[in-house]
Design brief:
Elements (H helix, E strand, L loop, with lengths): L1 E3 L5 E3 L35 H17 L7 E13 L14 E2 L7 E4 L4 H18 L10 E13 L11 E7 L5 E16 L6 E11 L9 E12 L2 E11 L7 E10 L2 H10 L7 H4 L1 H18 L6
Antiparallel strand pairs: 1-2, 3-5, 3-9, 3-12, 4-8, 6-7, 6-10, 7-8, 8-9, 10-11, 11-12
Helix pairs in contact: 1-5
Length: 311
Amino acid sequence: MDSYSTNGSQSASTSSGHPQHSHSPNADTSGTLPPLSLSILGVEPLDEFIKEIADFVHHMIMVVSPGYPPGKIEVEAKVGILKERTSERRLEMPVLVESILQPDALDIRFESNMSLQQHKHFNDRLNQLTSASQQSSHPASALKYTHQILVDSFFPLDPNSGSSDREKIRVTRDEKTGQVVECIHKIRLGDLNIFSPKQHADWRVSVNLEVPKQHPIGTVTHKRKKDRLSYSHEEFIIDLTQVASSTSAAAPSQISHELEIEIARSELLKLTAARRNDMNIPEHERSAFDELIRAFVNNARILVRNAIDQW
């Protein structure tokens, strides 16, 4: 019985019924690679790494967050270092490339505070990129830059209980105008840690719920001042922040530096999550959530790969 080879020509089958390769006498021997298909199916398999993060974020939005009061979904990736709690050294694992860690499987912590040198390095790189993005020859859309100084005041969620730091109402004001920017209770829904052994930094994806609150009446437990440089690009905001925290007016401020990228529009995030894999809508609409997460992950990777060895 005859069969067809992958180039469409007939080839004789072996006695076992399997087709033989058909070798053309005019095959290209120049060493030039001809155009290749993405796969034998003509499509690129979904990246398992990105899908894992997309599944995690989707689960937090669609399954976990409905158990809390309505609020704004925040999805962010912070650049930092994964450290072993016992030794305080950076995590080491027998893996060669970046890997998503199973939550709570290891006794580790995520350190987001970077050195002043690292902060300056990222500031310079982001400023250079912002300037370059204004040129017509730049391959991507332009970045926009803003500078804010914000002051956070924290109040107990329940004044009659010794609530933890996570059980606080945060009132944020613009230092220049004194206007309240937001008044929220921030609830952490979940985290995914990503170990990057080939880079000088790791990263963490966090999903939070920001529940609006009335301005509280009571005593401020502590304050922090955030000197924030924000770089917006399409659906994302990159924040490079110097934070000065203090527990009282007399106490010296503790200075830290952080870098994070956040998905800008919470409503778009929730809408695309609700439409994910809905077979009753066009393909581009049901895949929009995964595309959003793909670009989010790519941007986080770019930041991590630009870190220097001065954490």
